[in-house]
Specification:
Blueprint (H helix, E strand, L loop, with lengths): L1 E4 L11 H11 L3 E4 L4 H4 L9 E5 L13 E5 L1 H14 L5 H11 L2 H20 L4 E5 L9 H7 L6 E6 L2 H11 L4 E2 L9 E3 L11 H6 L6 E5 L5 H12 L1
Parallel strand pairs: 1-2, 2-3, 7-8
Antiparallel strand pairs: 3-4, 5-6, 6-9, 8-9
Helix pairs in contact: 7-9
Bound molecules: pyridoxal-5'-phosphate.
The site of pyridoxal-5'-phosphate has 9 residues, from loops.
Length: 241
């Protein structure tokens, strides 16, 4: 079995899904893609022959940070076994969470358009700032895989990352100064959220393992929400000062 995440959290590295589909088919490997950052609106790995697609519905599918859950889509013969396992071992959604997610799917497309527009505007603005060493966003021309991103994703996604020149202390100071943005490990919320992966989501990795996947001490991950882009930029600007 081959499991990939594209775009990856938080480095925003991409895997070529056409290549992956062919690679796994030729070797009779089961392919699984974590499509959480892209959502089904931006990217559909099934079109490339991927066997299973998994989502943390907690993120953009819910869209308001209300419920925890996930979903798996894919070939019916594989889903049949997963459904049997889930029904007999417990990882099933409560009816209320299932209702929240299914209502949220009705607005996924319009929300993703706004998340992505805000993220791109923010990434372009961040790229011109002297305090910042590096900005990453799949649809920025400076992203090393921008051409691949445009080929397999409808838009660049709602997440932007950047590295502050001042490292860990600059990152802590930035997060403490935020006023509108919420400081949380979650993402995909209607509200813009900021995370410091090295001390939260990826704190269990060693420093060497973090650096190997592009998580420097000064890395900040922003999940662009649905607010007016000027308000998001104004809060980030005052926190950088
Ligand atoms: C790409 C990706 N997949 C899966 C998960 C796990 O999500 P959950 O906490 O809903 O199980 C996360 C959480 O951050 C994620 O970013």
């Amino acid at each position: 079995l081959v499991l990939v995440e594209t775009p990856s959290n938080p480095a925003l590295e991409l895997i070529d899904l056409e290549w992956l589909g062919e690679f796994c088919r030729a070797r009779k490997l089961t392919s699984v893609v974590d499509n959480c950052f892209a959502t089904p609106y931006l990217q559909q790995p099934i079109q490339y022959g991927i066997d299973l697609v998994v989502h943390s519905a907690t993120k953009f599918i819910d869209g308001q940070g209300r419920a925890i859950g996930g979903l798996i889509a894919g070939k019916s013969e594989l889903i049949k076994d997963i459904r049997f396992f889930a029904r007999h071992t417990g990882p099933s959604l409560s009816p209320f969470n299932a209702w929240i997610f299914s209502k949220s799917l009705e607005t996924l497309a319009v929300r993703m358009e706004r998340h992505c527009a805000n993220a791109l505007t923010l990434a372009q603005w961040l790229s011109g700032r002297a305090e910042i060493a590096r900005v990453s966003y799949p649809f920025l021309d400076s992203h090393p895989q921008a051409a691949l991103a445009r080929r397999q994703m409808r838009l660049g996604g709602g997440v932007v990352t950047f590295v502050l020149k001042g490292g860990l202390s600059a990152g802590q100071q930035f997060l403490n100064k935020l006023q509108m943005l919420s400081h949380t490990a979650n993402l995909g919320d209607a509200r813009t959220t900021a995370t410091h992966p090295a001390s939260t989501t990826h704190s269990k990795l060693s420093e060497a393992d973090r650096l190997a996947v592009g998580i420097e001490q000064g890395l900040i991950r922003i999940s662009a929400g649905l607010e007016h882009p000027d308000d998001i930029i104004a809060d980030i600007e005052q926190a950088l000062a």
